[in-house]
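Hello Y.,

Per our agreement to keep a running log of every chain we model this quarter, I'm adding this entry. I've kept the format consistent with earlier entries: sequence first, then predicted structure.
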Amino acid sequence: MTTGRDLTLRCYLEKAQKQLQDKGFTSPREEARQIVSGVAHLELAYQLANPDYTFDIDTFNRLNNALALRLEHVPLQQIAGGAWFYDLWFQVSDKVLSPRSETELLVEEAYRYGQRMNNRQDMKQAMRILDAFTGTGAVGISLSQRLWREEIPNYLVLSDISPDAAKLAEANATRYLERDSFQVETCDLWPPENGRYDLLTANPPYIPSGEIETLMPEVSVHEPHLALDGGLDGLLYYRRLALEAPDYLNKDGALFIEIGAGQSGEVEQLFHEQGWEKMRVVKDLSGHDRILSFCR
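Predicted structure for the entry above:
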């Protein structure tokens, strides 16, 4: 029988922490609080101030179901059904890669360039943006919305080879953008007959094929390999971007890409060989080169 005390935040956290610890999770208390935040929408500050908060039975049952999934290493974003990215909430599923916080750097770099481009040019038409390998659409949507907030008109194209990803990206885009300001294409990287772009953003699969199974189960088991697998050396899609992107880039346009840790030198060389000029390298909080930008 479930008592009133059993339904309190304090009791749930104690139970969840023990079960997570027994399963070998390295930060069980933090994990438990994140489940509460994602499922019951109680932020950390509220949890700390209200340890005896009492859940209704429906929320308590959803928290227990979420705990059972987390014990099987299902990512928290999938459990919650979404994730925060660049101050926006994006719907997430097991068919797409959940957006990572370090990828916000990609949005920020592209935004800054777009802002400078708008300031130095008399833009006679809306800035055109392509976000390839879009997944949830988080990068492209966040960039487009930020530009619109600065009153910089733009037209966004989101592309992904996965029909499931394209469907999810469209749902997320519809939430934040006017319907006539974007389109979603299911295609192999480049949308058919869709012209050239001022900004190209890409967070392609970059894990070497043979390393995927060595990753933590949250990734190797519960995220789609299509969004992870970058070929034998992890560089397959960077080669394609370096070779093919010039045909899709406007004069004075730029390409912004995310890379994996340790890939910077090889990726830079690929683009150098194809006549690109490197603009900037941005490091993540761990000190790894994470974002590269190029122009022609």
